[in-house]
Amino acid sequence: MKEKTPDEIRSFQQERGLHVTGELNEQTLRALEESRWKLGDRSLYLQKSPLMYGDDVAALQSRLTEMGFHSGRVDGIYGPMTESAVKEFQKSVGVVVDGKCGPATIIALLRLTKIVSGGAPAALRESAVQKNRGPALANKVIVIDPGSEEYERDIVFDIARRIEGRLLALGASVFLTRGANNNPEESERITFTNNNKADLLISLHVDRHQNPEAHGVATFFYGNDQHGVHSIVGERFASLIQRELCARTDFLNCRTHAKTWEALRLTTAPAVRVDLGYISNKADADRLARAEFRDTVAESFIIAIQRLYLAAEDDAKTGTLRISDLRSAGLR
Questions:
Q1: Is residue 43 one of the residues assigned to a domain?
Q2: Separation between Cα atoms, residue 82 and residue 264, nearest integer Å
Q3: How many domains does the chain have?
Q4: How far apart, in Å, are the Cα atoms of 8 and each of 15, 19, 21, 25, 33?
């Protein structure tokens, strides 16, 4: 592989929705490997760990989804759900049903793709599942993932505990991915979230920058412009969180953004990451140091979570709904 300059690496990272560092870190190297493969370059099949991954797998998943074969989230990983969808497709077009996407299956897939097109079934399915869960928080499983970098760990853990306490009071089941003194790997946090069949994952962080003027709050959800996919529920939830935080605090609005980070991509539940200001900015650091500000941040999350599950006609103007309103409405 031709050696890339830092500017080329930054451009690639930006294009793929990765952290833009200009360095060939582990996630960037994996994304470069994924980008090598186009659908038809190789046969795809379910193998023992590590699973096959690449842009060709994502293209396969996207095409299957468009034709109504449920392969799960378009994540570029050839797992059991993708194999099952391939088998269903093979059965429908009369080729050998073996779960392997070889030449005959790819030819059938490409031929039919030209005449079949359809919106976004996976996104609609995700949205329908969320709506069917109902407005009450009492039957929801919510995982809170506090960041572990030295400069953020105490702040975000404290905010996570404040959110946890309020959610428990409303009857939700809540799990934290770490305690006060441990630091699981990202893969362990993802597995923990998926094993607990979470309805939502909220990853809490504080940012920092060499420019002390950088400040504000930003929220991220799973989205991949390369393959035209994103999490409908994740995007809506990110928007609700961002709006509530900016309405209830004096954080600068740094908007919501689609990213392909592993925690967003590999978590089966809708997932968001929230960067709660910059510790390198004095004003943001002073805000986060105040207990009453952290309480306001926690309440913003609770209201955003509840608004996610409310029907549109029951929703309230941003910044006006209170936790006491949820209790009085019997949303437990």
A1: yes
A2: 19
A3: 2
A4: 11, 14, 11, 14, 15
| Per-residue pLDDT band at 318 (split at 50, 70, 90) | low
Angle, nearest 10°, between helix axes 80-93 and 55-66?
Answer: 50
118 pLDDT higher than 50 = no
Nearest to 89 by CA among 66, 109, 115, 119: 109
Structural domain span for residue 299: 128-328
Residues 289 and 144 occupy one common structural domain? yes
Rounded-to-integer distance, Cα 240 and Cα 29, Å: 33
C-alpha span between 67 and 115 (Å, rounded): 10
pTM for the whole thing?
Answer: 0.77
Q: Which residue has the higher pLDDT, 130 or 298?
A: 298
Question: What angle do the packed helices 103-113 and 55-66 form, to 10 degrees?
Answer: 50
**Nearest-CA neighbor of 94 among 84, 106, 105, 78?**
105
Residue located via tokens 């630091």: 183
CATH label of the domain that carries residue 102:
1.10.101.10
Cα 230 to chain centroid distance, Å, stands at 9
d(CA 203, CA 200): 10
Distance in angstroms between the alpha carbons of the first and the last residue of the chain? 56
